[in-house]
Amino acid sequence: VAGKNSSFFGALCDELINQDLGAFETVVADILKEIKEELLQCETVLDSSGSNGLVHISALNALCSYKKAAIVVAKTPGFLLPEEGTPKAAEKISIQPPSPPPGASQQQQQIFRMMAAMSGRNSSYLRRSGPALEKETLLGLIFRLGVPMDNKSVTEQFQGIAKRSRNNIKNTTDGLRRQLRVYQDSVHIFLKSLITAGENARTPVLQWITDALLVNVGATALRPDKTKVSNPQTLQNIAVVLLKLCERFMDDPSRIHPGFVWSEEDNGGIFATSGDDVVSRLGENAESCTEPYDARNKFIPQCFFLCARALHLSVVAGASQHTNILRQVNHTAWNLRQRNLDVANDNNFNYILSIQFANEVSMLAPELVIDSLRFFNLTAAFLTQTNDKALPHMPEHLVSDICEYLAFVSKHAEKQMEGVDLGNIFKVVVKLLSPQYASLVRNYNLRAKLGDVLHDVYLPPDSNGRSSLSSQICCDPRSGGQPYLISDADAQESLAPSLLLLYGEVEHTGYYEKMGHRANIASLLQFLWASKEHRNAFRRITQNKTSFITFANGIMNEMNSLIVTVMEKLPEIRRVQLQMANPTEWGAVPEEERETISSRHEENEQEVKRALPLCNKTLKMLGFLSTDSDIRSLFLLD
Fold it and tell me: Are 339 and 309 in contact (CB under 8 A)?
């Protein structure tokens, strides 16, 4: 039986339905029961042929190639989680922990139970929760399979990673990605066959995705609660499939109606405005919108916003968690070197490093990175075209996700950015930073991120010191390859005053954070100053005398503070350096006191590393701004 390619398959199904619809539904239900039992035995896409997820998803694809069978699959009892607020949703499922190995001593049994509890895999969970989604529903059993970084069969692929060549690691990674991609493509075919089978199948499928997003709101936590949320691979696979469904309108934001966000009847509560799971809006105190949601094709906005939410809970949250893994890897290596130990042969370091590379198999898969970038560019185009009445009601994470993901990719997968159109992202950043919209986006941390995106992605590499980023990324192919910062008309009009305003606003982001933000802004201002296209905008700044004096006072106070900080810390740093360089003197210091001195010394070095670049850039900024007579006269006012 070869699915839709076999007339016998269709004829057989038709005959069964004509003779006894109930019997046909029973046959399909029995097939699903068998497949679900087999899927429960699967852990990854690397499983052997005996319990291979790809085999089962292929069988489902063949079954659902007949639309009436697909409808039966979507209407099968247990296809969805219990409705929120029902007694069944609040039921707790307790899992019996595995028994210790035969012959284990009492101490070994205690250790075994403790390790099982720490893993979180044997804890109880509610029938409406992330774990229940994966273990009790057909789609959950399918979507959970991938290459999870904490699975032994995955990490074993990177055994002894610190001593392996880059080419060897790349071959291993590429092999795993091929297997993952084949599986994800098959899952997409299965989901698409359900959606295209008709309204009776499409509605429960989209409800399942909505439920998946609702029960996994905790996935953005630094350490998600495994008894409440699904595994990262589940959410990532959902995002991958939704990205594929968005392909048909990826270059046409005009088909996306913003009303889906404020129509709770349509969005199912994924953009809640109250309660524990409230989703912040771009505008502060944005009242409920009265504009009707009258999209001609409601599937497109639904698909777009479900995908945006899925990316927020999976790819963007995963980027933050992966950054923490990288910090742990670097910190572990630093500690080993401090003790003069062999990093490459340390078992703990190799294990943590294997976790990093195992996670990068899916997190940095080229197809996922490129599709996510294209989607965020679509999101930016949508936000750019959204009218001022609807814009304040848009979820704040639509903007913050763009900033955070671009920052992550520019550091860890910059090659994937080449050839991807990021022009709409530049336009929406310029728009939201402009004085006209400064009162709309009042989250100072978000505004600071917008400035950082301009610096990290759109400032030419020879200006920001990041040679690894290709120059084509920051240039607009539609303007003869000129940088967006120079060629964009809106940027020429408003970006210089926007950055001067932002320079003061980042004061609210924190003492250490503001230094990095201001160093980036200073580099951007220096680049814009050297461009004749922006000179008129700089001249207009002097027309608002009060605003410029506030900026001037701030920059002078900042420079004085930075110089004082650097001059205080440098002598202390030098004194400790000399003390450490003298083995006799340093050895005579008690160990506890050495640790205190070393810790304080490291803090002083870090503070100077933050302050000195900003101090230099602030002096340069004061210098080039003062070359204009009108600006210089304002600096000299008493």
Answer: no
- Identity of the highest mean pLDDT range in 100-109, 111-120, 481-490: 481-490
Q: Is the pTM of this model over 0.85?
A: yes
The amino acid sitting at 484 is: Y
H-state helical runs in 198-346: 199-214, 232-245, 264-267, 299-311, 317-338
Residue identified by tokens 């198999």 is 361
How far apart are alpha carbons 348 and 77 in whole angstroms?
A: 46
Closest by alpha carbon to 403, among 380, 383, 423?
380
Contact 57, 183 (CB under 8 A): yes
DSSP SS3 for 94: coil
Question: At CA 317, angle to CA 409 and CA 205, rounded to 5?
Answer: 110
Cβ neighbors of 603 (< 8 A, separation 6 or more) are none
Q: Are 505 and 444 in contact (CB under 8 A)?
A: yes
How many Cα atoms within 13 Å fall on the side-chain side of residue 187? Answer: 28
* Residue with token string 């069988």: 59
Could you tell me what percentage of the chain is helix, strand and coil, using 3-state DSSP and rounding each to the nearest 5? 70, 0, 25
Angle at CA of residue 619, ends 618 and 621, nearest 5°: 65
For 387-445, write each residue's pLDDT tens digit.
999 999 999 999 999 999 999 999 999 999 999 999 999 999 999 999 889 888 889 99
Which are the contacts of 438, defined by CB distance < 8 A and separation ≥ 6?
Answer: 447, 498, 501
Query: What are the φ and ψ backbone dihedral angles of 314, each rounded to 5 degrees?
Result: -115, -75
Residues paired with 482 in a beta bridge: 476
Nearest to 358 by CA among 146, 163, 188: 146
Residue type, 367: E
- Quick one: tokens of 192? 């698409």
**Token pair listed for 226:** 């495994």
Radius of gyration of the chain (CA): 28
> Tokens for 88?
């069944």
Q: Cα–Cα distance between 482 and 168 in angstroms, integer? A: 39
Residue 286 CA to residue 273 CA, distance in Å, equals 10
Write the CB contacts of 274 (distance below 8 Å, at least 6 apart in sequence): none
351-395 pLDDT tens trace: 999 999 999 999 999 999 999 999 999 999 999 999 999 999 999
